[in-house]
Amino acid sequence: MKTRREMLEEFVAADPADSFSRYALALELEKEKRELESISQLREVIARDQAYVAAYYHLGRILARLGQIEDARAAYRQGLDASTAAGDQKTRNEIQEALDMLD
């Protein structure tokens, strides 16, 4: 039986532009303590779909946990811009809170 990660990897391979599957794969990789792979997938989500605002929050959170504070700040700031542009106030507030906690 395939793992959740394996299924998500297949979804991404079948449709590389599917932001949701790639985002879900990134979160699954994070659960498996494969943070660098998770970061790579989140960055790819953002590169392909800048309006997928949840990716910025999780990218910043992982980077901060790994001690990459300036990179985390940059991800959060990009997320603020993207969530403002998308009109997503809830995610914008979450990103702002996370950014404030770094300062």
Structure description:
- The chain has 103 residues and is mainly α.
- The chain is built from six helices and no strands.
- The longest helix is centred in the last third of the chain and has 18 residues.
- The N and C termini lie far apart (45 Å).
- The mean pLDDT is 97.
**Low confidence ranges:** none
The biggest sheet amounts to: none
Helix/sheet category: mainly alpha
Number of E-state strands:
0
* Tally of DSSP helical segments: 6
H/E element order: HHHHHH
Distance between the termini: 45 Å
How much helix is in the residues? over 70%
What radius of gyration results from the CA coordinates?
Answer: 14 Å
* Residue share in β-strands: under 5%
Quick description:
With 103 residues, the chain is mainly alpha-helical.
Task: Please name the defining characteristics of this protein.
single chain; 103 residues; mainly alpha; 6 helices; globular
How are the SSEs ordered, and which strands pair?
Elements: H1 4-14, H2 19-31, H3 35-48, H4 54-65, H5 69-86, H6 89-102
Helix pairs in contact: 1-2, 2-3, 3-4, 4-5, 4-6, 5-6
